[in-house]
Amino acid sequence: MYRTAVLRLLRTHRPRAADPHEAAMTTEVIRFVETHPDCLLRTCVPGHLTGSAWIVDSPRRRTLLTHHRKLDKWLQPGGHADGDPDLRAVALREAREETGLTRLRAVSTEVFDVDRHWIPPRGDTPGHWHHDLRFLIEADPAEPLVTSDESHDLAWVELARVAVLNSEESLLRLVRKTPPWG
């Protein structure tokens, strides 16, 4: 079954969640995947799975954020699964598309973080949940960036300064979880 790999990732991650809130969100995402066979499609009415890339430099002092055009906030690159059950591949694909980077390296095959967040209605699209599996990705800040039409801007940001651009717990948890290099 196509959801088996996703459920395996989530169940492996749950005991490693950073805090009780992330553990609870992971449990909610597991339940969502178990009860929605169409969870990988954006046509799934209550919400759908997404894959995100928490891109860091190799010393793990900076992260690459995108100023998301529709949401008008600084976030990690990521996007819809669109039927692909390999959410790490989704995160890498979205990172390439949104940043222009080509030399991305997944630090692990395991999920780095799980988040569940509300996306407000926009035009004909009703409000819905993004059930986001996030992966730790390394990139070289010297590689040129290409801002996509989904973004206003891209920026390498010192981890200690992420809160200046976006102080939401969802992003701050990623900062706290970023392991030092080595």
Average pLDDT? 93
CATH superfamily: Nucleoside Triphosphate Pyrophosphohydrolase
Structural class, by secondary structure, is alpha+beta
> How many helices does DSSP assign?
5
List the helices and strands and how they pair.
Layout: H1 4-13, H2 20-35, E1 47-56, E2 62-68, E3 73-75, E4 78-80, H3 87-99, E5 105-106, E6 113-119, E7 128-138, E8 151-158, H4 162-165, H5 169-177
Helix pairs in contact: 1-2
Describe the fold and architecture.
- With 182 residues, this protein is an alpha+beta fold.
- The chain is 29% helix and 28% strand.
- The chain contains 5 helices and 8 strands.
- It has helices at residues 4-13, 20-35, 87-99, 162-165, 169-177, and strands spanning 47-56, 62-68, 73-75, 78-80, 105-106, 113-119, 128-138, 151-158.
- Strands 1, 4, 5, 6 and 7 form a 5-stranded mixed beta sheet that branches. It has a 3-stranded antiparallel beta sheet with strand order 3-2-8, with no helix packed on it.
- The chain is globular.
- It starts with a helix and ends in a 5-residue tail after the last helix.
- The mean pLDDT is 93.
Could you give a quick summary of the protein structure above?
Helices cover 29% and strands 28% of the residues. With 182 residues, the chain is an alpha+beta fold. Strand 2 (62-68) and strand 3 (73-75) form a beta hairpin.
